[in-house]
Amino acid sequence: MSGEKAGPMGILPILNETPGKKVVVMKYLLKRTALMAVTMLLVSLLAFVAFALISGDTATAMLGTSATPERLAALRAELGLDRPLPMRYASWLAGFFTGDLGMSSQYRQPVWDLLAPKVGVTLWLSLMSFALIILVSIPLGLWSSGRKSGVLGAALNQFCMAAPPFFTGILLSWIFGIGLRWFTPGEFPNAGEDLAGAAVYLFFAALALAIPRIAMTVRMLRSIIREEMGKDYVRTAISRGGSRGYILRRHVLRNALAPVVAFLAQTLAEIVAGSIVVEQVFAIPGLGRMLVASISNRDYAVVQVIVVILAFWVVLAGTLADLLNEGIDPRLRLGGGAA
Question: What is the per-residue pLDDT across 23-76, written as a single tens digit (0 to 9) for each?
């Protein structure tokens, strides 16, 4: 059967199946895309309405103590705040496609112009952290699955899982920043002028985010592989002369990856939340740091856009995880249909 052919894991191998199965796959993709779009629409609506109902508005915050009824009315008309709420929401939602997301009351500049460079910083931080988790945890989990766990290894794993990212970040800053002077804590280099320096700086922040999740992923993968290695199909393969490494790569890893992929998708979502704290520790000018500052300054026009951007990242991570899991195990397609 074509579904049993070896090939790269993911959604692409499925597209090589029969025409009937291709239709099923395309329907699944459309369904997931539609679900993601509806979810984001609801998130954007809740974010907009919640901050629109909070007492005060952008015009009041921008004018401050010099606000008078006449000046407030004029500025609200200029910013479009005098329009009905549904019209304001429709205009704000369209702004995600046109770049017009309102005006920051704190910085007196368009929200998207303020956030655009910070989105890139947070995106690189999150992707770098996620790459570290995959590159370290999967090989380490495979390696540790065939070995006994000593007291020191178990204690180190527990410590890494328990250490919060802000503590790990402070420790890394002290060792590699203050001690070894590989970077200067609190001084994030301009990527346009010093790309290598910015990458090194982000690497240690990403490592602070990744360490607890690496420990969790290693422990999870090790446990799943050990459980799989005790099953009948593995014993049968061993009795036929297959080596442990071959069986692990050819059979066990594929069965073990589905729950790990789901866990990694959750990790990708949590990295975004963790970056809010880590960006404070390392003084990185990303979305997390801007979110904290905007909440403190009651700059709701900025806060609501950041909330939607972070929510989109979380929803996208969950959707990609579902697609990858369906590619790894086609039985999951459309709620467990036969492969």
Answer: 777 887 888 888 888 999 999 999 888 877 775 566 666 666 666 777 777 776
Tell me the C-alpha distance between 75 and 175, whole Å.
51
Three-state SS string over the chain comes to CHHHCCCCCCCHHHHHCCHHHHHHHHHHHHHHHHHHHHHHHHHHHHHHHHHHHCCCCHHHHHHHHHCCHHHHHHHHHHHCCCCCHHHHHHHHHHHHHHCCCCECCCCCCEHHHHHHHHHHHHHHHHHHHHHHHHHHHHHHHHHHHCCCCCHHHHHHHHHHHHCCHHHHHHHHHHHHHHHCCCCCCCCCCCCCCCHHHHHHHHHHHHHHHHHHHHHHHHHHHHHHHHHHHCCHHHHHHHHCCCCHHHHHHHHHHHHHHHHHHHHHHHHHHHHHHHHHHHHHHHCCCCHHHHHHHHHHCCCHHHHHHHHHHHHHHHHHHHHHHHHHHHHHCHHHCCCCCCC
Burial (CB count <10 Å: 0-12, 13-18, 19+), residue 125 = buried
Residue 149 has pLDDT above 80, yes or no: no
10: left (phi over 0), alpha (psi -120 to 50) or beta: left
Q: What is the pTM of this model?
A: 0.77
> Quick one: which of 339, 274, 279, 258 has its CA closest to 313?
274
- Phi and psi at residue 103, in whole multiples of 5°? -120, 135
Tokens 């796959």 belong to which residue?
A: 25
180-213: buried (b, 16+ CB within 10 Å) or exposed (e) per residue?
A: eeebebeebbebeeeeebbeebbbbbbbbbbbbb
pLDDT reported for residue 3: 41
What digits encode the pLDDT tens for the residues 208-217?
A: 999 999 999 9
Whether the predicted pLDDT of 223 surpasses 90 = no
